[in-house]
Amino acid sequence: MANRIALTGDQTAAYAMKQIEPDVVAAYPITPQTEIVMSFSQYVADGEVKTEMIPVESEHSAMSACVGSAAAGARTMTATSANGLALMWEIVYIASSTRLPIVMPVVNRALSAPINIHCDHSDTMGTRDSGWIQFYCENAQEVYENLIIAPRIAEHPDILLPVMVCQDGFITSHAVEALEPFDDKDVKEFIGEYKPEQTLLDINKPLTYGPLDLQDYYFEHKRQQSEAMLNAKNKIPEVFDEFEKKFGKKFDFVERYKLDDADIAVVVLSSTAGNVKVVIDQLRDKGIKAGLLKPKIFRPFPDDEIIEALSGLKAVAVMDRSESFSNQGGPLFNEIRSAFYESDKKIPIVNYIFGLGGRDIDLEMIESVYNDLMKIVEAGKINKKVNYLGVR
Amino acid sequence: MSDNKNGWKDIPIGGMIKKAGNAFEYKTGDWRVYRPVIDREKCIDCLLCWIHCPDSAIKVEDAKIVEVDYDHCKGCGICAEVCPVNCIKMEKEN
Ligand code: SF4
Ligand code: SF4
């Protein structure tokens, strides 16, 4: 029987960080920071890790310190949430553009205003164009495994992009779950030593990071970033394979739940996928062929996997826990619809914006989505493209 | 923008500069409005212009002024301003 420990999602992230034992963690120590940093700093204080912990005066400074540290060749991590991520914004772009493989657990919470501290995805969805790789986790176990695999992806020489590992605020971050961690030794072996090709502190190979880059080269550097994200899409499966070899667990860009014979399906990120699975089981008992597709990685966008998984369906509902205010639905919906534009399969796809600011998403609401999908299949057409689920 | 620049496949990632001192390859002189012209007859080789030039664009050999490096001189006029014998004229570029 595997070793099991009871931890919250936050503590789980800190536990993964302890096993990774990065050289440097620079983080803001108070609100909107989460328990991740508190728990990790305890490990540092207790001498359980040799990590250099830099408490800084703002999230902007946290990411700035991470940029400096990563450029100096240190394996670097931080953590953030909500408005903290918003304050980091400028440096979030600089980290990815400077191609620094920083790994950052993020607790997804709503952005102000009005002030709200509960779960939605507006914080990280806002950074979806920042050039970071993004994982979205259903539960603490996924937070753990995604964090263990993250440094290998970030530091892959063909990728070299920072990674966010997102978990749902409170729902995952504050709830205690049973975690089955891997052995410290196995984690260390899997992650290996970080050997950057060049570092700022190597005086024999002088290097400048972040210089002025105007009309003549900036575009080329952006083009390289696009290529890195494409490489990420192609190389991540190799890391998945190594993960499976080491830990005996299969990894993929997406998880399918009862999807193979399904007529209708929901696509959703993170913890809500758990609720959807319960509803699917209930519907299956009634003979309704309902399924779920849960993208585990949103950047790079797993377009082929999503098209392949959804192509056989009669209707699909994409549920977004953030609003893009485009009048065209949420970000996940938009990208999935766009991915289908070239596909021969024209499936009715509708969008449900839900759960903003931590609004509960209960099983009845999810069931109502499946009911809507059945009506769409029956009528052969969509009534409303963008819907708001659970708003008064 | 000058031609023959490398494409995205052939430059270091992330804007990293791997070669020290390569700012020399970047020609900053093409947006000059006035060019400094030194009257060598009057110049006393005090080197004040050389010390003050923010772009290291005054070339010196054996403690004597040789020429202005117009590839990098941006035409700020500081040299003309500091010259004690007023032997640098700022002439309008065509
Ligand atoms: S004009 Fe300015 S840049 Fe040009 S040589 Fe004189 S001091 Fe240097
Ligand atoms: S400051 Fe004038 S006199 Fe002195 S070296 Fe320069 S040009 Fe000659």
- The multimeric state of the shown protein is heterodimer
Helix/strand/pairing category of chain A: alpha/beta
| Mean of pLDDT of chain A | 97
What would you call the shape of chain B?
A: elongated
Q: What's the short story on this structure?
A:
Chain A is 41% helix and 18% strand. Chain A is built from twelve helices and 16 strands.
List keywords for this structure.
heterodimer; A: 392 residues; alpha/beta; Rossmann fold; 6-stranded mixed beta sheet; 5-stranded mixed beta sheet; 12 helices; 18% strand; B: 94 residues; alpha+beta; two-stranded antiparallel ribbon; 2 helices; 4 strands; 11% helix; binds iron/sulfur cluster
How does this structure look, described?
The complex is a heterodimer of chains A (392) and B (94). Chain A is an alpha/beta fold and 392 residues long. Chain A folds into 2 domains: 5-247, Rossmann fold, CATH 3.40.50; 254-389, Rossmann fold. Chain A is built from 12 helices and 16 strands. Chain A has helices at 9-20, 35-45, 59-71, 82-97, 122-126, 140-154, 184-191, 218-247, 272-285, 303-310, 331-340, 363-379, and strands at 5-8, 24-27, 52-55, 76-77, 80-81, 103-108, 133-136, 163-168, 176-179, 254-257, 264-267, 290-295, 297-299, 315-320, 349-354, 386-389. Chain A starts with a strand and ends with a strand. Chain B is elongated and about 50 Å long. A two-stranded antiparallel sheet of chain B has the order 1-4. In chain B, strands 2-3 form a two-stranded antiparallel ribbon. Chain B starts with 33 loop residues before the first strand and ends with a strand. With 94 residues, chain B is an alpha+beta fold. Chain B has a domain at 28-92: Alpha-Beta Plaits, CATH 3.30.70. In chain B, 11% of the residues lie in helices and 20% in strands. In chain B, a hairpin with a 2-residue loop joins strand 2 and strand 3 (64-68). Residues 38, 43-49, 65, 82-83, 85, 87-88 of chain B line the site of one iron/sulfur cluster (SF4).
